[in-house]
Design goal:
The protein is α+β, with helices and mostly antiparallel strands. It is built from 16 helices and 38 strands. The structure holds ligand LQZAQKY5 and molybdate ion (MOO). It comes from Tepidibacter formicigenes DSM 15518.
Length: 633
């Protein structure tokens, strides 16, 4: 493809500057109001103050069950000198909410009334005028303001509006937001998901976000990469909506037409914003309406929506932005960043002792799970080359601080059982291998570290490593599970792989785990025993960070085998050749053992629910699960 066919002139406009340029072109005439029925007004925002039509109550009413009396006629009643009064003449029986008719002007509660023969009662104290009566307008007086303008109607407001006799009111019109997913590779039905095709998930996320911020989403089916079709679709969407979002096709690909089309039918204000992810964003105006080209990668899509589309929708819907909660956290891993743009990094958060620890998640713009798992987002300014581990950073919370405080932070080796535990209790689980976990624990960044480290001299698991890396410190090892490790192989074992010796065969390709992973140590221990050179294993250098990644690699024929746990092989419907059981345990500093999160964790792993669920995964033994061994001083 020729270079001139591409949009290679993507600028790098500062985010605030881009916002300023764009928002100055938004015409107020499109921000209007409508009159609606009060019954449909929940969560709408008033465009003007709303006043009561009626008083409430609109008649004098009883506030208690009892009798209505003329107060003046009860004066003088005492315990010594009670008054006997007659029904119909001196009083009438009344219930809460009933109309108080003339001449009655007070209510005596039924508990204070002594009933005598039929039609006569005795009272022991006088009533004062208006006692236990709700006078007209006690709640609301006609013409009183019920709610001000720019107020989002809550259920309790709805009650007051109806009590005040309001049947119609004026609210801001919800902006209609056209959503156009683009790309010939994008499909919307699961059955069309062939190789090379991508399911349209972004536009569904946009629909949800538009609703959340008070707009009406108008999503259409994905549009293929065809200049004329896309142009006509955008023109139609501009006609029918207040705001138009075009997803993907925003960067420099040969079929990234969005910017050319907006330039032809309107004007491009900005192409390229200094934000990562989200750089190739397009901000344009067509027929006076805002049109935004949002980059296709899911994380970029979300970040651009939150940074630029959300404030735009709020400008129309008048929904108030929730105050962002920003917290200071200690960064657990160094982050390197480019001077070219501001970077938004997703992080996991957890309180370890009183320190809020932020652990960066993967930064790939295509990794949606990094958003799902994120507890917060930290911003690295454009003029920074990165941040060192141990430094304080400001993090915008995506979850409540209380839920972060409840979360047990685990950093270490990966196992499928961690997903099960996190489904039973709040757990944030970082997967960096057993040695990575030990290092994180030494830095005080986690409560527990799942480890499975084989001592090549003794054949024992974990204890010698704890003694070595936590000299002079009292540590606890909570026994986890025994899990079956072995070779994951394709169904039917077409390469006839049976043991470690087969790994050096010409026709066998392998995939390894990262350095420091317990499974890697297990491999090295076994090949050492057999005097196998690592260079003789094809694929020894190809490293994966989880058991599931190894299983996927085998499943997709990207290698013939890899070492890993049976549950991962079973989950991917692979065959499995057992090598042996190993101990997957949890390291905890002794002083945390009284912490409620740890107590809860032990209860969870000892529970029947947990044991039943891991039985279904296959390849686990649980006879010592939850037992605690003390290691060190
Ligand atoms: N030579 C250059 N290449 C790229 C640049 C650049 O500056 N120069 N920018 C990169 C960056 S950064 C991003 S972000 C992407 C933006 O790409 P586009 O907006 O043009 O989107 P596509 O290339 O069509 O798609 C990218 C990717 O997004 C996913 N996608 C698209 N639509 C959807 C959808 N509706 N639902 C879910 N996922 C979707 C899909 O995985 C695509 O592969 O460009 C880089 N390239
Ligand atoms: O800007 Mo792209 O959104 O970094 O991935």
């Amino acid at each position: 493809m020729k270079k001139e066919d591409r949009n290679i002139y993507i600028s790098n406009t500062d985010v605030d500057k881009a916002k300023e340029i764009f928002f100055s072109e938004i015409r107020d005439k499109f921000i209007s109001y409508e009159e609606i029925d009060v019954l449909n007004s929940l969560n709408r925002v008033t465009s003007e103050a709303v006043f009561a039509k009626n008083s409430s109550p609109h008649y004098n009413s009883a506030a208690m069950d009892g009798i209505a009396v003329v107060a003046e006629n009860t004066y003088g009643a005492t315990e010594v000198n009670p008054k006997i009064i007659e029904e119909g003449k001196d009083f009438v029986y009344i219930n809460t909410g009933n109309l108080i008719k003339e001449p009655y002007n007070a209510v005596i509660m039924i508990e204070d009334v002594i009933e005598l023969e039929k039609g006569k009662v005795k009272i022991l104290s006088p009533a004062h005028p208006w006692q236990h009566i709700r006078p007209i307008g006690e709640d609301l007086v006609a013409n009183e303001m019920i709610i001000p303008s720019k107020h989002k109607i809550r259920p309790l407001d709805l009650g007051a509006l109806i009590a005040g006799g309001v049947d119609k009111l004026k609210v801001y019109k919800k902006p209609k937001v056209g959503i156009i997913p683009t790309g010939s590779e994008i499909v919307e039905k699961f059955e069309d998901l062939k190789e090379g095709k991508i399911i349209d998930s972004n536009s569904r996320m946009f629909e949800g976000l538009v609703l959340e911020y008070g707009g009406i989403p108008n999503r259409i089916s994905p549009v293929k990469d065809d200049y004329e079709i896309l142009k006509n679709t955008i023109l139609k969407a501009v006609d029918e909506n207040d705001i138009v979002l075009i997803n993907a096709g925003s960067s420099a690909g040969s079929e990234d037409y969005t910017v050319k089309i907006i330039r032809e039918i309107g004007k491009v204000l900005v192409h390229g914003v200094a934000i990562k992810p989200g750089k190739p964003t397009i901000l344009g105006i067509v027929n006076e309406k805002p049109v935004i080209g949002i980059p296709g990668y899911p994380v970029s899509s979300y970040m651009v929506f939150e940074t630029l589309v959300k404030p735009l929708i709020l400008k129309y819907s008048k929904f108030k932005e929730n105050k962002e909660e920003i917290k200071k956290a200690v960064l657990s891993k160094r982050i390197v960043s480019s001077l070219k743009n501001k970077e938004l990094v997703r992080v996991n958060l957890g309180y370890v002792k009183d320190k809020l620890i932020a652990t960066p998640l993967t930064r790939g713009a295509g990794v949606t799970m990094s958003l799902v798992k994120a507890d917060g987002v930290l911003e690295i300014p454009q003029n920074s080359e990165g941040i060192e581990a141990g430094n304080f950073v400001d993090v915008k919370l995506l979850k409540t601080e209380d839920s972060i405080k409840e979360t047990l932070v685990s950093i270490g080796s990966h196992d499928l059982i961690m997903d099960i535990i996190s489904d039973i209790m709040p757990l944030s689980s970082g997967h960096v291998g057993s040695m990575g976990g030990i290092m994180a624990m030494r830095r005080g960044e986690c409560h527990i570290s799942p480890i499975h480290l084989l001592d090549e001299n003794t054949g024992e698991y974990n204890i010698s490593y704890i003694k070595k890396y936590f000299k002079g410190r009292k540590m606890s090892l909570i026994k986890g599970v025994k899990r079956l490790q072995g070779f994951m192989i394709q169904k039917g074992n077409p390469k006839n792989i049976n043991d470690f010796k087969d790994l050096i065969r010409e026709d066998v390709s392998f995939v390894n785990r990262q350095r420091g992973a317990g499974t890697r140590i297990l491999l090295d221990y076994n090949i050492n025993k057999l005097d196998i050179e690592t260079s003789d294993i094809k694929g020894y250098e190809r490293e994966m960070t989880t058991h599931m990644a190894v299983a996927v690699s085998v499943k997709s024929n990207s290698c013939d085998t890899g070492l890993g746990i049976m549950s991962a092989a079973k989950a991917m419907d692979l065959d499995f050749i057992p090598v042996g059981y190993e101990c997957y345990d949890f390291l905890v500093p002794f002083e945390y053992m009284e912490d409620e999160k740890i107590i809860n964790f032990i209860n969870v792993i000892k529970s029947e629910e947990f044991k039943n669920r891991i039985n279904n995964l296959g390849g686990y033994e649980v006879e010592n699960t939850g037992e605690v061994i003390i290691v060190g001083e």
